[in-house]
């Protein structure tokens, strides 16, 4: 081989080796075929930064995705939507009782006004009717006892409106209607008192918390006096 031939061969080898330099030396990758995805060029000084990497054809970065909100509904998140509030039922004004209703058989009896004669309060003659002591508190008053009295039964008319009074227990409901509405009560006490001892004066008080006092006869029947031995008293507080 001549000297010229040797020099030519060396030059060819040098050119071939220059074309085969590895990518580690910083050479850019060859262009990708059409239709394929490839990494974009990243300067060596920022190769470790994930914030600046992207893939051609991929979706938005997490930061960009976070800026994409839900479809608009036309209502701003801060828009206040008024919610209707329930209107409380009006409180009945104090008034005289017109009817009284007890649980159990569904007793509902008319109420009439009564006045005491010589310190004695006599129930209405008709056992189906209940009397309201007019000197006691009105239904719905802020203080005092509203006193209702009635017969337990009658030899001529049978059971009275308050015949079931002795069957009530604590928590039993009682309703009294007036011209201004209905007031509900809840039974808190049941008393059986000997008539000979009389009724406690505090049952007729016009002061203190409002309450309903219902009075009728009870206990064994005395044939000699044609009267029951006891009084049955129910005390109820406004519900």
Q: Could you explain how this protein is built, in words?
A:
The longest helix is centred in the N-terminal third of the chain and has 17 residues, at 3-19. Residues 2-59 and 62-77 have low confidence and may be disordered. With 239 residues, this protein is mainly beta. The chain has helices at 3-19, 62-66; strands at residues 99-101, 108-114, 130-133, 145-149, 153-154, 158-159, 173-178, 181-194, 211-222, 227-238. The radius of gyration is 49 Å and the shape is elongated. The strands form two sheets. It has an eight-stranded mixed β-barrel. The chain has a two-stranded antiparallel ribbon with strand order 5-6.
Name a few traits of the molecule.
239 residues; mainly beta; eight-stranded mixed barrel; two-stranded antiparallel ribbon; 2 helices; 28% strand; elongated; disordered N terminus
> Can you write the helix and strand succession as a string?
HHEEEEEEEEEE
Number of strands: 10
Low-confidence stretches: 2-59, 62-77
As a whole number of angstroms, the C-alpha radius of gyration is: 49 Å
Shape: elongated
